[in-house]
Design goal:
The complex is a heterodimer of chains A (443) and B (148). Chain A contains 11 helices and 22 strands. Chain A has 443 residues and is α/β, with parallel strands linked by helices. Helices cover 35% and strands 41% of the residues of chain B. Classes of the chains: A alpha/beta (443), B alpha+beta (148).
Chain lengths: 443, 148
């Protein structure tokens, strides 16, 4: 048994055991599950069978994990094209739950779970909470939206299975969130990082200091965020902020989670097989190289997903973590390959704008990027909310702030953006995912 | 001898000025004087009210960004050259004015100006040394009420 686990054994929930599997055993388990899932997908899902037949691949040939890369990718459009139930591998009477994505573009995507899938989902959520030190006795304010969105029920059942006390407050109603946080003695919160920043700000406006509460842990996800946001949250709330990763197409939250060392999210590899590919060529890249994360579900019965392209850009770290977990880590996902926009020939990720904003002292990451085209020339406007820290009664100071932001962005991107200082709360807050870019260029 | 001035950030859009004014009106707070500084994109509303703590709290609660700054109220003769005289005095003292505006009321033949200095305490001492009348909050509010 791994020594680190031994030393800390009292701190780990028994369900976390697979996090610490010796690698040969883990790979063997992955291979067995992979073979079962490829066979299931081939036999039960028309799309997978058709694509494997086209490539003359049969389930029998997959005798090694090295062969995973021979299988075709699955992309989000495949879920849309087969809407609603086309990728299900179980008959409806075995399916106990359906969820659907927010569907910002066209039809939503639908995902299905049988009872085993729901149990696996709970177990990876228990492992997620346990990884950041939560346990029985914690009072968890669960502020992800309940409903079709997987964040709600997924984290809820996991928190209950952990033995913690769950407050199913769901998203929204910020003042009630703050009241509950204080009156119920909440020790941990789950929500999007940008919503938590909003809670900190609102509490401050109401004259309450979040630092005075017993709250000590934040489980943040459902949108890309940056290390600077983590530092801001930790400095302004006395909590440790942990990154949780997941997506509905794979299972929901609980695909990967940070441990106490906050050095990337451990991916629950016994259920989700990760690969990193070059997003342009589709070629599989070695551990440590940056590329697009591709996931294969190893145990999902109702809706197996083979080599699903997440569009999230990251790297896989295989080096041992101080916590003793043997499962690999993905680096924090700050950008998605489809978040990127191109302006005047330059590839821009919103996270680059964010780091420029954060570098300017006193500027909080509430911003929105608006792209317009004026007489054939693309223009980028960044709307930035004024905060009590950045506000001055002197016009000159405010103009200097604008200038510093313009300069900061120009330094990073080589593009001059228009900076508009806007009133607090005038940019729509995310209780789900933040809309960072509004493209009005009609391309 | 100093007054607490509230500053509120506004976007330069129709209707933005009325919002904070309405919040203060709803809270029963009378604005003694105000000044608006603006660029083409944003503005800063500066206000003097008697109960500045309450005004600050209701504005913040309504989501506005509010800053409290200390300013100095100075009495000048309400006649041609009154303003020029005080500006000349400040120039001699080498005290830099960040910005200034006037009170709308007058008492007898005096007008009252509001000055924002980088270092209000030093400015007050120097002005008083030159015989300039600096008015404190209590005196000011009394005059406003008499004038009204």
């Amino acid at each position: 048994m791994h020594t680190a686990m031994h030393e800390n054994s009292g701190r780990f929930h028994p369900v976390s055991a697979p996090d610490f599997l010796p690698l040969p055993q883990l790979r063997q388990l992955q291979l067995q599950r992979f073979q079962t899932i490829v066979r299931r997908a081939y036999e039960r899902v028309e799309l997978f069978r058709k694509r494997m037949d086209e490539r003359k691949l049969t389930p029998d040939r997959f005798q090694s994990l090295d062969l995973v890369g021979q299988l075709p990718f699955t992309v989000k459009n495949d879920l849309r094209d087969t809407y609603p139930f086309g990728l299900f591998a179980s008959p409806m009477h075995e399916i106990v739950r359906l969820h659907a994505s927010s569907g910002t573009t066209g039809k939503p995507i639908v995902v299905a779970y049988n009872q085993d899938d729901v149990d696996v989902w709970s177990s990876v959520m228990v492992r997620s909470f346990a990884a950041c030190g939560l346990h029985r006795g914690d009072i968890i304010q669960h502020a992800y939206g309940y409903g079709l969105f997987t964040g709600g029920l997924g984290a809820h059942y996991g928190a209950e299975a952990l033995g913690a006390t769950v407050i199913p407050i769901s998203g929204g109603n910020t003042e009630r969130q703050i009241m509950v946080m204080k009156d119920f003695g909440v020790t941990a919160i789950c929500c999007t990082p940008s919503y938590f920043i909003h809670l900190i700000e609102r509490a401050r406006e109401l004259g309450m200091d979040i630092k005075s509460l017993p709250l000590r842990t934040g489980v943040f996800g459902a949108e890309p965020w940056t290390e600077s946001m983590r530092q801001y949250i930790q400095a302004n709330s006395n909590i440790k902020a942990y990154d949780i990763y997941g997506l509905s197409e794979i299972i929901g939250p609980g695909v990967a989670m940070e441990c106490l060392h906050q050095c990337g999210s451990h991916i629950f590899e016994d259920h989700f097989y990760p690969e990193i590919i070059d997003p342009k060529t589709g070629e599989v890249l070695p551990d440590g190289a940056e590329g697009e994360l591709v996931l294969t579900t190893l145990s999902k019965m109702a809706m197996p997903m083979i080599r699903y392209r997440t569009r999230d850009l990251t790297t896989l770290a295989a080096e041992p973590c101080e916590c003793g977990r043997t499962i690999r880590r993905i680096k924090r996902i700050g950008r998605r390959s489809d978040d990127m926009f191109i302006i005047r020939g330059v590839n821009v990720f919103p996270s680059q704008i964010e780091s420029a904003l954060l570098a300017v002292e006193g500027t909080m990451p509430h911003y929105q990027i608006i792209l317009t085209r004026n007489k054939g020339l693309d223009e980028m406007e960044v709307q930035v909310e004024v905060t009590p820290e950045s506000f001055s009664d002197k016009i000159g100071v405010m103009e200097a702030l604008q200038g510093k932001i313009i300069h900061g962005i120009e330094n990073i991107l080589g593009i001059r953006a228009k900076i508009s200082l806007v009133e607090p709360h005038s940019i729509q807050r995310s209780e789900g995912k933040a809309k960072r870019v509004i493209d009005k260029r009609n391309m | 001898m100093k007054l607490n001035q509230l500053s509120v950030f506004l976007e330069n859009k129709p209707g933005r000025l009325s919002h904070p004014c309405q919040i203060l009106a709803d809270a029963g707070i009378n604005i003694l004087t105000l000044s608006l500084a603006d660029t083409h994109q944003f503005g800063i509303l500066r206000l003097i009210v008697r109960d500045w703590q309450t005004a600050r709290d209701v504005l913040a609660k309504a989501g506005a960004v509010v800053k409290v700054t200390e300013v100095v109220a100075v009495e000048v003769a309400d006649k041609p050259g009154g303003l020029a005289h005080i500006l000349e005095t400040l120039e001699q003292l080498k005290v830099n004015i960040e910005y200034m505006y006037a009170f709308t009321f007058r008492s007898q033949d005096k007008a009252v100006l509001v000055f924002r200095f980088e270092d209000p305490d030093t400015a007050i001492t120097m002005l008083q040394g030159k015989g300039v009348s600096v008015i404190d909050g209590v005196e000011l509010y009394n005059r406003v009420e008499k004038g009204a």
